Structure formats: C-alpha cells, structure tokens
Amino acid sequence: MQHRLRFAPSPTGQVHIGNIRTAIFNWLAARHMGGKFILRIEDTDLERSTKEAIDTLLECMEWLGLDYDEEVLYQTTQAQHHLDAAKKLMDDGNAYPLGPVTEHSPILFRIPVFCDDFPFVRTVGPASYTLAPDTAVEISGGGLKFTTLSPKGKPVENQACLAGFKDLAVLNAAGQTLFALTDDKLNDILGNGAVETVEHAASMTFTRREVFYDDMVKGHLSKPLDSMRDFIIVRSDGSPVFHLANVCDDITQNITLIVRGDDHVENTYRHLFMFQTLGAQVPSYAHLPMIVNAQGKPYSKRDGDAFVGDFRDKGVLPEALFNYLTLLGWSSGDNREKMSREELVEAFDLARAQHSPAQFDAVKMANLNGQYIAALDPAVFRERAWDFAAAYPWRESVDRAKFDAVADLMQTRTKLMTDLAAWTYFFAVPVDYDPKGVKKFLTPEPMRAALAKAAGAFDSLPENDPKAVEDALRAIETADGLSQFALNQPVRVAVCGITVGASIYETVVCIGVKECARRIRAALAATA
RNA sequence: GUCCCUAUCGUCUAGAGGCCUAGGACACCAGGUUUUCAUCCUGGUAACACGGGUUCGAAUCCCGUUGGGGAUGCCA
Q1: Per-residue exposure over A446-468, b if at least 16 CB sit within 10 Å of its own CB, e if not
Q2: Which 350-389 positions of A have CB less than 7 A from strand B?
Q3: Which protein residue lies nearest to nucleotide B40, measured between its Cα and the C1' atom?
C-alpha cells in the first residue's frame, strides 16, 4: 500500500519552526516510504487566515525544498462535505444537538455506546466510583453527571460520555442497586431522549472500556472511556469544528498516516471514533514531541525569533535549517549529524523519533550552518553571498569581481550569512579603529615608523601578488630590527580597523595595495 | 481536580537486561598547528531525576514519587 501523508497547517500569521518541523517529518516519512506528501491548508478560521499568511507558508516550504504532491486542498472548499458528514452522524445516532433543539443548537459527537466491536476499543474490567454522600446521578443521552469527593473531601462535579459506563449500576449507601443501565433503559435514553436522575446515590459500578492505538513514535497508547466526553463538531452558527473538518478531509484525501504534534494525542482518541462511525479506515498515527525554547518552555507568540523567515533573514541556509530541525527529536542512530537530504530520506524512520520535547539550540545550529557554508562550492557561495549582501548598502558600489575575491577569501570563516555585514572594510575605508588594536599596534613609535615604510613599499608593489606583500613586510621588519610577523597586525588594524580576519597578505591584495598604502597613511594620521 | 504523555552530560542525542568504567555532537577548558581570528588536530570537565521492586545482573522491565508538557474550548 502506498502511504498518503499530509501537512495541514492553519495559515494564521508566521510559520513557526515547530510547525515546519512537522512538515519536514511528514515530508521525510513520505519520501522515505515512497508515499505521497500532500498539503492541506486549514483556512476555516476566516478571522485569522489571510492571503499573506498563505503566501508566507508557501514561500517557507519552497525555501526549504518541501515539495508536495497533488493539488493543495483548501479546507474552506470542503464545508459542504463537513456538514454532510455531520448529517450522516446525526442520522445514525452518532451525533445529537445540545440542549433544547433549536436552529442554533450546536451538534455533539456521541462516543458510541455500542463500540465493543470497534478494533480500537477493549474492555479493561470492572470499575467503580465512590460518590459524594447523598448526591444525584444524572444519566442521559449526553452522558453522565455525578459528584465525587476530592482527596481533600470537597465535592467535585464530573461529566463523562455514556459510552464510558457499560453495565452501569448506581448503588445507595447500603449497597443496594438504585438503578441499572439495562438495554431497555439505554434504548429509552438514546431513542426517546429520556433522562434518568438517581437520587441518594453513594457509589456506582461499571465495566470499564478503553480506546487504544499504537502510535508510531510513542508506542501503545490508551485512555479509559469514562474519562472522555462527547464533544462539539458543529458550532451554533452552523460551522464545523476542527475535529469534524480535520477528520472529514483526512477521509476525502485518503490519508493513511498522520504525523503531527503530540498536543493532538488526546484528539486522536476522539478522532478514532469519528473515522469508524463515518465508515472510514482509521489511519496510522505518529505524534511528535514539541520543540521548546531556550528556557525549556513551549514557544509562544512572544518568542518572535522562532519563525522560519527569521532564520532566512539571519543568514541560515535552508539545507542547514532543514538538517538541524531533523536532529531535534530524531537521530539516525549511527552518530551522523550532518546529512544530505538524500541521506535523510534514506535513513528516516519515525520509530526512531524521540518521545520527549527537544530544546532549540541556536549555537549548535549556527555551527551546522557554518559546516554547510564551508562545504558550498565556491561559485555557489559567491552567488549566495552576493544575493545576501543586497541587504547591505555598501554592495551598490562594489565591483562584482572584487566581491567574488572577498567571498573566496572569507567563505571558510563565515558561520551565518549575516557575517557578511562585517565585510565593509574590504570595500570602504574603516570609519573607526578597534581601540585595543590601536593601543597595541598603532601607538608604539617603532611600529608607526615601520608602517610608514610599508605604505611607501606598497606604493610600488604589483597588484594581486600576496607573496610580494609578505616579502615587503618581512624586509621592513628586518631593516627595522622588528621580530618576524610583528608588522602583520599593525597593517591589519590600519587597513581593516580590526584585529581579526583572513590572511593579511590576501586581505591586502583583495583591497588593493595602492588603496592599502593610502589607508595606512590615513590611519597613521587619524591616530597621531 | 481528573485524564493523557514524558524524564541519559548545560543542550541535541546513542543506548531494546550483561557489549556501559554510559558513546557521539554542540558549547566549555587545556595543549598543538597557524602571521591575527577562524578552521584543523590532541586531550579534558560533564549525565542515567528520586525511591522501591523483578532479575545472578537494570540507564534499559514493573510500581510509586517528583519535575516538565498536553488535554479537559462553540481554538486548531
């Protein structure tokens, strides 16, 4: 069977790394299994879904190379399907209007009472609740209402679905049965809307059942039915709720494997019943743990730095972000970290995903990004750097050939593309000089004298000959009785304004020896 | 409150009862290479949340505690 997976985001603003990580895992799983990766845009929240948000989403996916199969399905186009499904559920007795029936009654999905044959329901065994003394139990088509005692002795109101209480018996303090949920009673309740209220109840017993499934990442998962409640699938304004729309679309799109955030685990227990009652095959599930911020907390709207677009703006390469995100909550198992897209597709396995949240580490990501930049073909790096430098005003007046030379020189020491911001000195006279550098390298008289000589030597040096620059500096050092290499840093500070950078000989050549001669004189004058 | 999920170095992780004296990566520290910085090389600091149990043997299985997250919406 060919698997069909989907990424189904709500386009409500920016694209979050948590969201895109879900997209990546879906994409990887689909490509690994040779299945389909489908994009569905859940744009039913008309208030918050905007054209801009959709464009941003599409852009982010393209930037990361997340190509999808088939046409994008916009959920708003499916409204009629959703309502038809709700109608079917109502007709089959699997959904009912809340409260007194009016045109504006919201519709609830009823966890089916007769569900013993469902493949994802099993009987756990006998169970009981002790109730708060002398309280009532209400049994209706909407479920049970009863009052228990908290450990501190306070009464606590409980509500649960009818399906949770198979073979229910309500007892009084003496242990006598006050009420038994027979098939007749059940039919009365379900068929005629009868409401049974049992007063003076002390306890109740029932057969506990649970819903269970095998999560591809979390393993065996289950939840007792008596801890579940019926839930709304159509609002009072007639619009379908997430649960309905989501499940319906998964059915119409024949989705076979759902990979999503583990905040949906609880929903899965409910959706299983919906697939079943809608007559559809239930899909497989894989729930991914969340990505959390540097404080170990879930990302919130406040964490403005977790948007995919921000990483692009900060100079992160898409392939590096893609790779780094796969490392959050997943590992190959063989110590490989920097992996190509092909390697990832080959190695990807949902069963190897982590069960607990992963913290995003911007430093490690920058390191990975540096590895990707270093590995780039120089011609590609020149191109990308040129494009990225468009953000900086100095690029306008820069000669492309010179820029390429600088790019070649600086590639291996670039971690983030934003590092290019510091390349200004290659193209313009430094406006200020690093104070520590000035104190150490431009202040001592012997240095200043030697620097002046260097300027003179540079005047008559051939361009594009780093060896000549090196020889010239060595000659001056020897003549002035300075130690070898003593002039390198002074030249760097005078020419670049800073103390760190690539080989000074290469740097001088990049800037131009004549220009450097001028800069040295200017620096000497500025620091006199 | 109830229910669900979860727990290995600071961080991402390896680990499927004996290969564990717990491995790798980032970060950090020390040394080396280097004209500065970065790269690179070598070495180092650093973790099985806690308490019970099962077993000849537990990071690994079970129970409990604690911590974290989620659900409990006419949000998705």
Answers
A1: ebbebbebbbebbeebeeeebeb
A2: 351-352, 354-359, 361, 363-364, 367, 374
A3: A412
What is the mean pLDDT of the segment spanning A417-444?
Answer: 91
**Residue A143: which residues within 8 A CB-CB, separation 6 or more?**
A159, A160, A161, A162, A164, A229, A230
CA of A128 to C1' of B71 (A): 23
Tell me, in Å, how far CA of A459 is from C1' of B75? 71
DSSP state of A281: P
β-bridge mates for residue A36, sequence order: A4
Residues 6+ apart with CB under 8 A from A418: A314, A315
| Tokens coding A440 | 């150490």
Instruction: Give the CA A366 to C1' B11 distance in Å.
Output: 14
- With cut-offs at 50, 70 and 90, classify the pLDDT of residue A268: very high
Asked if residue A208 lies in contact with residue A125, where contact means CB atoms within 8 angstroms, the answer is: yes
Nucleotide nearest A217, from its CA to each C1':
B5
Q: Concatenate the DSSP letters of all residues of A343-395 into one string.
A: HHHHH--GGGS-SS-EE--HHHHHHHHHHHHHHS-HHHHHHHHHHHHTTSGGG
Q: Is the distance from CB of A152 to CB of A202 less than 8 angstroms?
A: no
Report pLDDT digits (tens) over A375-427.
Answer: 999 999 999 999 999 999 999 989 999 999 999 999 999 999 999 999 999 99
Q: What is the DSSP string of A419-451?
A: GGGGGHHHHS--SS--HHHIIIIISSHHHHHHH
Q: Which long-range contacts (CB under 8 A, 24 or more apart) does A62-65 make?
A: A63/A308, A63/A312, A63/A318, A64/A20, A64/A23, A64/A24, A64/A308, A64/A318, A64/A321, A64/A322, A65/A318, A65/A319, A65/A322, A65/A341
Tell me, in Å, how far CA of A27 is from C1' of B19? 36
Nucleic strand B near CB of residue A406 (< 7 Å): no
ipTM above 0.90, yes or no: yes
Q: What is the pLDDT of residue A153?
A: 81
Give bridge partners of residue A125 from the DSSP assignment. A208
Q: Is the CB of A140 under 7 A from strand B?
A: no
Percent of chain A, pLDDT > 70? 99
E-assigned strand segments in A141-270: 143-149, 155-160, 166-171, 177-180, 196-215, 219-224, 231-234, 257-261
For the cut 80, the answer to whether the pLDDT of residue A94 exceeds it is yes
pLDDT, one tens digit per residue, over A289-347 is 999 988 888 887 667 668 999 999 999 999 999 999 999 999 999 999 999 999 999 99
User: Which of strand B's nucleotides are less than 7 A from any protein C-beta?
Assistant: 1-8, 10-16, 23-27, 35-39, 68-76
Q: How many CA atoms lie within 13 A of A475 on its CB side?
A: 11
* DSSP state, residue A526: H
pLDDT above 70 for A137: yes
pLDDT on residue A297: 85
The structure's pTM equals: 0.93
